[in-house]
Amino acid sequence: MTDPPYALVSIVKRFGGEGTATAKIGASGVYSRASAGFMGQTWDTGETAFDPAFWAEVLRVLKPGAHLAAFGGTRTVHRLACAIEDAGFIIRDQLAWVYGTGFPKSHNQRGEWDGWGTALKPAFEPIVLAQKPLDGTVAQNLRRWGVGALNIDACRVEGGHAGVSREGEASAQRRYSKSGSTTYTLAPGPRGGDARGRWPANLMHDGSAEVASAFPTAPGQQGAVTGDEPSALTNNVYRAFGGRPPSSPRGDTGSAARFFYCAKATAAERRGSRHPTVKPVNLKRWVCRLIAPPGAMILDPFAGSGTTGEAALLEGQRSMLIEREPQFCADIERRLSDASKGMAA
After folding, report:
1. Rounded Cα distance, 255 and 13, in Å
2. Smaller CB count within 10 Å for the chain: N or C?
3. What is the dihedral of CA 187, 188, 193, 199, to 10 degrees?
4. How far is the C-alpha of 193 from the C-alpha of 151, rounded, in Å?
5. Nearest to 298 by CA among 63, 135, 92, 90
6. 288-302 burial by CB neighbour count: b if 16+ within 10 A, else e?
7. Residue 192 near residue 250, CB atoms below 8 Å
8. What's CA 32's distance to the chain center, in Å?
């Protein structure tokens, strides 16, 4: 798991020649911030993260079937994903981390164009989920290498309610006969899913009121199903199936935000680091837990402030961290030292 530079640099970096001056307009220099790289960071370039040769080296050292989770920027994640795929990884999914603390970095216009700007408010970051090809089947790969699948049960989302009995209710295990009728395998447990929580989604959010308010109110099943209702959804293709199996109402209510994992950063998580893109430890813990079992080695070739190392430590995993910038290496040492002391206490 890693969070490489997003290469949110300007036309000066992308198209200018060596020694090109910072872009300015008159005395205001309204484009000077954008021309210096993300938040003025000279390391925010794509010469490594967008190079398939780099990801080929990552692929080489990973176990067969190992997953890769790489954070990206909304403007440049396509280059990141292409480089990862060109190196030999299989793209499995794209996760989205949604947050409410983004600030629009817009150059607002004046005069007759007042009210027009140059940027939207940032509200999510994509995470490329890829996998090194398997050695045989998933089951064979798990036996040989200890990786190759996602840890679904450990990453389930709490349902927030006790649930209603599934007695007499059909599970998702359906069987179809030659005549087109359907039989069901019944499963015990609470209505609405596994007692351990909802299936993890590829959408996560920070739990902020701003984000939660964007989700509609989504009550669960409120009425009972008797089994006599017509199965109209299948008429146009398969003709009518048998009646729906009886089930009790789910009875849960609230915002649809409850269906997704929440990760929220705190000021304390920065631990004094000046790194501009510190990720929440809880978010990285969830991803570490999703892609690898306890005891696994997590590689982060763009370690930044070391949140991957802390997340892996808290999940009972090991980590190998690589960071090029000397000023952030001290942050990593301090973070891991503090985390280790906290666990010992």
Report:
1. 44
2. C
3. -70
4. 17
5. 63
6. bbbbbeeebebbbbb
7. yes
8. 32
CA quadruple 39, 41, 43, 47: dihedral, nearest 10 = 50
Q: Are 29 and 22 in contact (CB under 8 A)?
A: yes
Residue carrying the six token digits 């290498």: 145
Question: What are 241-271's pLDDT values in tens digits?
Answer: 555 566 666 566 677 777 676 665 677 777 7
Angle at 256 between CA 252 and CA 259, to 5 degrees: 80
Give the whole-angstrom CA distance, residue 96 versus residue 84.
18
Residue written as tokens 């849960």?
Answer: 252
How do residues 119-136 score in pLDDT, each as one tens digit?
A: 999 889 999 999 999 999
**pTM metric for this prediction:** 0.73
Expressed in angstroms, the distance from the first to the final Cα of the chain is 27
Q: Would you put residue 227 in left (φ > 0), alpha (ψ -120 to 50) or beta?
A: left
Nearest Cα to 272, choosing from 314, 306, 298?
A: 306
